[in-house]
Amino acid sequence: MKKVSVIIPVHQAEKYIKSTVESVLSQTYQNWEIIIIDDGSTDNSIKICEKFQDKRIHIIRQPNRGVCAARNAGISHATGEYLAFLDADDQWISQKLEKHIKHLDSDPTVGISFSCSAFIDESGESVGMYQIPQMDNITPALVIRRNPISNGSVPVIRKEALEEIKFQGNCYFDEQLNHFEDVECWLRIALQTNWQIAGIPEILTLYRVNSQGASTNIAKQIEDLEKVLEKTRSYAPDLIAQHGNAAKAYELRKSARWAVRLQLGLTAVKFSHQALSTHWRILVEEPRRTIITLVAAYLLCLIPRPLYHQIEVQAIKIIGFSQRLRVGRKKASFQTTSGMGNQSILNTLRATR
Q1: Final residue of a domain: which of 157, 187, 216?
Q2: Would you say residue 307 lies in a domain?
Q3: Mean pLDDT of all residues in the chain?
Q4: Alpha helix positions (H), 234-264
Q5: What is the pLDDT of residues 96-150, one digit of tens each?
Q6: Which helix or strand (DSSP H or E) is residue 8 part of?
Q7: I want to staple 256 with a disulfide (CB 3.0 to 4.6 A). Which of 152, 213, 272, 347 is the partner?
Q8: Is the pLDDT of residue 328 over 80?
């Protein structure tokens, strides 16, 4: 059995870290180690981690240097053939590692295995929405436009794939970036190595939506995307020339959706307009999602808030139901072709509640 090194950067996460670590302890695949990187926490996060009596849990301390430096430190201490990243406020479904190990072992060309995610709120309850990215035919253009490896708690990676793209000693993730450090890393693997990126169409990660998270710093994300595009342009100019504007437009639209979630109507409208002016074809390429984003932004600005909330609740139910059907179809197709697993999609979804 191959060993998995689970790397958990921790900074001021006392509210969530216990459930995060417990989601690893409950994995059906048990040949793992947890490397907790204390990134200068001043709360009770590490005290909580120290209470776990499991010799497979290791705590590494460093001054606060950010998530990239923490992940790099974790990789340098990892002894497993496979690496998995888990943010300190997210959780895993109990079969996550088992599913990814089977996936990677079944195809020696795959360097990064990823999955779908369910959104949970600050109390750990499902919000009824999911991240369901494209699962196969992952090209560099798709990575930079849509990032199918949709959050930092999704991928399980062969360590040798990361070793091929490290730079400046033991840097794997670019420590000059606060956002898009993962996209920039996946791009280097897609462009500079022969490893394939492929997904499992199952909900195996629980991604927490909280107003204090890095994902809500939407203005800074746009700035960091520009840095990633500029860095990638230095060694893949044709890719950026062809897809750079589209990448910015998709990120602007995503920022508009985050603004909607945060009830920032005018900000959502502004980002939606910027997305269309940057790459108007986003309306043709993904009309449904683009139109829904525009409508939500304008409704948030124009109608009374109680009425908006009623519409929002119904929309979430409809979209969530549609997403669950998509996951079910993708999973059925995947199992037919790969023979992997037979866990009911309903059982997986119940675990998000």
Answers
A1: 216
A2: no
A3: 90
A4: 237-261
A5: 999 999 999 999 999 999 999 999 999 999 888 899 999 999 999 999 999 999 9
A6: strand 4-10
A7: 272
A8: no
Quote the tokens at residue 296: 């939500």
Q: Is residue 69 in some structural domain? A: yes
Q: Which domain holds residue 204?
A: 4-216
| β-strands 156-158, 82-85 pairing | antiparallel
Same domain, 86 and 196: yes
Please give the average per-residue pLDDT across 27-54, as a whole number: 97
In angstroms, the CA 16 to CA 184 distance is 27
pLDDT in tens, 302-325: 999 889 888 888 888 888 788 778
- Same domain, yes or no: 298 and 183: no
Distance separating alpha carbons of residues 236 and 227, to the nearest angstrom: 14
Q: What is the Cβ-side half-sphere exposure of residue 242, based on CA atoms within 13 angstroms?
A: 8
Q: Which pLDDT does position 341 carry in this prediction?
A: 41
Terminal CA-CA length for the chain: 31
Token pair of 57 as six digits: 């849990």
Statement: residue 213 has pLDDT above 70:
no
The secondary element (H helix, E strand) that includes residue 34 is strand 32-39
Task: Find all residues with CB under 8 Å of 57, minimum gap 6, and list them.
Answer: 21, 33, 34, 36, 49
A 10 A CB-CB count for 170 gives 11
Considering the domain architecture, whether residues 151 and 237 belong to the same structural domain is answered as no
Considering the domain architecture, whether residues 172 and 262 belong to the same structural domain is answered as: no
